[in-house]
Amino acid sequence: MNNKTLYILLAVLVIGCGAFFLLPSDEDKINDNLISLAENCSSALNESVIETMQKVSYATKLCAIPCKVQIESRNFNGEFSQKEMSDHILMLKKRLPNTTISFQDINISLINKTQANAIATLQINGSSVDGRFTDAYEVDISVNKYEGKWLFSSFTVVEFMKR
C-alpha cells in the first residue's frame, strides 16, 4: 500500500470519527426542539407582532400535524391542525404577557429510529392580576421522525402541581 492510499484512508477515518462524535444525537435534537418550543411559546413584554408571529410559526413547525393534546385531570383530549395550534399559542402569548416557559428534568427514550418518548416538567413563570405565579406540569411527549426531523406528535399532561 502506497503512502497516498494510506493518507486517504486515514483522512476518511478521521472525518468519519469526527462526524460521529460532533454531530448531535437524536436525543440532543429532541432536547433542542423542546428548548426551542419553550422559547418560542414564551412571551416577552414588548414583543412586536411580527416577532410574535415568527415565533408562533416556528413553534408550530416543531409539531406534527395533527398534534394530539391530552390533559387527564380535565378529561380533555383533542387533535389540532397547524392553524389550531398556532391560534392556541397566540392566545397563550396574548393572555400571559411576560411569561417564561421551560422544560425541566427532561428524560428522552428512543423507541426505535423514528419514534421516541420524552417525559419532562413543563414550568410556566409569569404574572397575572394577582401577581407572579409559577405552575408546573408533568408532561409525557411522543416524538416521531418525519423526513429526518423530530416532531412532537402528542403532549399528555399527566400530573398537575401548583406552587
Short description:
It is built from four helices and six strands, in the order H-H-H-E-E-H-E-E-E-E. With 163 residues, it is of the alpha+beta class.
Task: Summarize the structure in words.
- It is a single chain.
- With 163 residues, this protein is an alpha+beta fold.
- 39% of the residues lie in helices and 42% in strands.
- The chain has helices at residues 3-22, 26-41, 49-61, 82-95, and strands at residues 63-71, 76-80, 100-110, 115-128, 131-146, 149-162.
- It has a six-stranded mixed beta sheet with strand order 2-1-6-5-4-3.
- Strand 5 and strand 6 (149-162) form a beta hairpin.
- The longest helix is centred in the N-terminal third of the chain and has 20 residues, at 3-22.
- The chain is elongated.
- It starts with a helix and ends with a strand.
- The mean pLDDT is 85.
- Arithmetic mean pLDDT: 85
- Computed over alpha carbons, the radius of gyration is 20 Å
- Strand tally is 6
> End-to-end span in angstroms?
69 Å
Please state how the strands of the largest beta sheet are arranged side by side.
Answer: 2-1-6-5-4-3
- The percentage of residues in β strands lies in 35-45%
Low-confidence stretches: none
* Structural class estimated from helices and strands: alpha+beta
- What overall geometry do the principal axes of the alpha carbons give? elongated
Sketch the major β-sheet: 6 strands, mixed
Tally of DSSP helical segments: 4
> H/E order of the elements?
HHHEEHEEEE
How much helicity do the residues have? 25-40%
